[in-house]
uroporphyrinogen-III C-methyltransferase (Parasporobacterium paucivorans DSM 15970), 508 residues
Amino acid sequence: MGNGKVWLVGAGPGDVGLLTIKGMKVIEEADVVVYDRLVGMGILSLIPDKARCIDVGKTSGNHMMSQEGINKLLLEEAKNGNRVVRLKGGDPFLFGRGGEEIELLVKEGIPYEIVPGITSAISVPAYNGIPVTHRDFTSSVHIITGHKKKDEEYDIDFSALVKTKGTLVFLMGLSELGSICKGLSDAGMDKNMPVAVLERGTTAKQRKVISDLSTIEETVRLNNISTPAIIVVGKVCSLSKGFSWYEKLPLAGCRIAVTRPKELISGLSEKLRIKGAEVIELPAIRIEPIKENLALKQSISNLASYQWIVFTSPSGVNIFFEEMKSMKADIRSLAGLKIAVIGEGTLKMIEGRGLYADLVPSRYDAENLGKELGAICFEGDRMLIPRADIGNILLVEEIKKRKNVVIDDIPTYRTVYEGSRIINEKEEFQNRNIDYALFTSASTVRGFVSVTEGLDYGLVNAVCIGAQTKKEADGHGMKTQMAEKATLDSLVRLVEELHEKQRQGNEK
Ligand code: SAH
């Protein structure tokens, strides 16, 4: 009690990269996150597990919680001593009811902070190549709510707006587009004034239509533009065609689910985001180190008795070295051992610890590792393999086929399947909201399947890192593709190729 506080945080317009650094920090420290519909899926997927999440989603007409209810909720949670993050789309103080939400907090003396966000009013035009001001065209920009109470007249002074000659940005105006255009045109605006309607800006589903004051309503109808969308009126809209950039990124328009375990996910997500993809992080598995692992401890105490140590996953490396650390085992106790790793990701992990591999197989899988290791090791060698409890048996079999060796195959972690608490994976795939699911191991496929039971897997475009992974995905009836090499870069390249083909197909 007593330490509760509320942060009103703007999540930006959708693109994860447009959440502020301060916003992210506050979310990382939150006990409770209260969010609504406009907050992008990508951002929701970043909320740490320890935070309780409350969806007060407010799509117009489908109110889940009244404004009063939300105000009370924030108060209650803070009074109970929680660090409460109220996460809102765009900026909390621009048509975000931020003012209403702090009134009660002020009255009750609850401390709070406001973390402004990037508003859709400026960023969505920017992602569509529209600068809301430009010295050649306009010297002001006006942001207006297009919301109108049913059966009431607009409380907007259209003739004052027209007189400013400024760019006009209407939020929440799509359903009243006709009245807005009529209001402006009755007030004397040129019928040829360019107008843009921008749907779901800064996300993979971003779309725009541009025409003029007299035709935009028809254009919007023909293209089935839907909410959320903003309306931009002004000469700057004519710049959009020449200035557009987002669509040109190699993975623009692509929404990708990444299923790696949480501690490994960000590297892959970043590679995809840089290329313009919208990434939803849906870790399908969690790595759980085996506690009080006596077999592992014993091996670490006797490292000098081995000739080889073999790593078959990044998690395997991390857990092994964490155990060494907890035992205060010196890195030099590995001095006499040769090191074999299964592939590039695992190699990077050991290199990060100042070690280099003596063997990386030419093809990155357990079977090949076994074959190549079996070929170069000596009779009677002792090998330590600290790895998952359900490690691929082919590794050991292939080595033993070739040499008579002693292998300590020690389980160091198990894989736990889990789904997102916030995002309904099954629904998103069923509704075709996600273009590709990336799988970096057979266990991520199994994890994904365990949390999407009943999904029609024919709807899942599974992009798989290697043969084992593909086999697992094929077994569930997914549409599968396999990377040329078992590396993250090769996986990303494959997604690019698939997306490019898809785009060309759409253009035809
Ligand atoms: N506080 C928010 C606005 C909330 S009002 C902000 O600063 O952006 C909700 C309206 O914002 C929607 O009706 C729509 O007009 C606009 N909007 C929000 N996100 C959008 C997006 N990604 N693309 C297009 N319009 C968006």
